[in-house]
Amino acid sequence: MWAVIELLLPRRPRRFRHLGRTRLDDRKALWGILFVLYTGIRWEYLSQEWGCGFGSTWWPRWAEWQQAGVWDEVQQVLLARLRAADRLDVSRAVVDSSSVPAKRGRASPQVGPSPVDRGRPGSKHHVLTEAVGTPGAVRSPGPVGTI
User: Fold this and answer.
1) How high is the pLDDT of residue 143?
2) Confidence at residue 144, expressed as pLDDT on a 0 to 100 scale
3) Same domain flag for 113 and 56
4) DSSP state of 37
5) Same domain, yes or no, for 18 and 58?
6) DSSP-assigned beta bridge partners for residue 95
7) Are 55 and 45 in contact (CB under 8 A)?
């Protein structure tokens, strides 16, 4: 999986004038990010003993990759490979969604009035999985109620 993902990650050249700390290896950063996303623990609870830096290292890298569209590309490439290997069971599918309240009001363009919470601001997230549970699509479409 790493060989596929590595090609999709943005390259960031090392600065020569103001070196600062050496940037954490992308593979280690990916491992830490996937561990947090899989287990649901907080970024700062990841152990530095695992050789993957601090939680403050992973969060900016996750945000950088999110902004660069890496996660959407990774999902599309891995789904295409599963499809080509005939490893997706699309005979059944499950769609689920959740509404998340907006803690800081409506400042974000992705926040709108929530139909399930008396018009309070929030966002709605949708997930589609195939029969075995492989995510086929994840959407956070913007204002609640739109897809």
Assistant:
1) 43
2) 40
3) no
4) H
5) yes
6) 128
7) yes
